[in-house]
């Protein structure tokens, strides 16, 4: 009999890779399907998986690709029959600029990966989650997608607005599926390649200041994230927007 089964998207680096490693550390009997767009080039993930005795299983998972997501779900169904926890983590945040300078195509691109990709992943894994005794679907959001931080001058509207949409999606999934634990979770300000790219493109200094004040390592964030997810219940966390520090965020 297998231990808990997890599926994580965007698992090749940053928070995603740290989540894979934290789950393997915390649950030695768990099976972790680690989704990445290009498994053949994901050296850090592959190296970690090689030492996991088959527990960590890299899979090609492309955000918003319907057929690819279905193929991954079919593989998991064949191998283990269910998924206990899906963590949609794959995201992009690679356009920085004020609203007036943000091209519509950049907004569409961010929504396609960050929002539509999460919708497609839920639809692909729905049957596998229903086969679990304790199913959870917990998208990784962003604190900046909360109205609490609406006054921040960080010019990443394309990214954060897509996370606002993701929050609504997680809430609707909660409302429409009484058998499931679903909620969006903000991982904190995490020192990753994504954050470094945003800092480099931000000429206001706002993101760098935020990083200096609050930045944590992917490993620290992953520990906090998994502590919340593993202990989450529908009655307490379900349908709400949570910060990695354990506080509830306003929509």
TrEMBL record:
One of its GO terms (cellular component) is cytoplasm. Transmembrane segments: none annotated. It comes from the Eukaryota. One of its GO terms (molecular function) is oxidoreductase activity. Gene3D superfamilies: NAD(P)-binding Rossmann-like Domain (3.40.50.720). Keywords: NADP, Oxidoreductase. The keyword Oxidoreductase applies. Signal peptide: none annotated. It holds the Pfam family adh_short. PANTHER family: NADB-LER2 (PTHR43544:SF7), SHORT-CHAIN DEHYDROGENASE/REDUCTASE (PTHR43544). Belongs to the short-chain dehydrogenases/reductases (SDR) family. This is NAD(P)-binding protein. The lineage of its organism: Eukaryota, Fungi, Dikarya, Basidiomycota, Agaricomycotina.
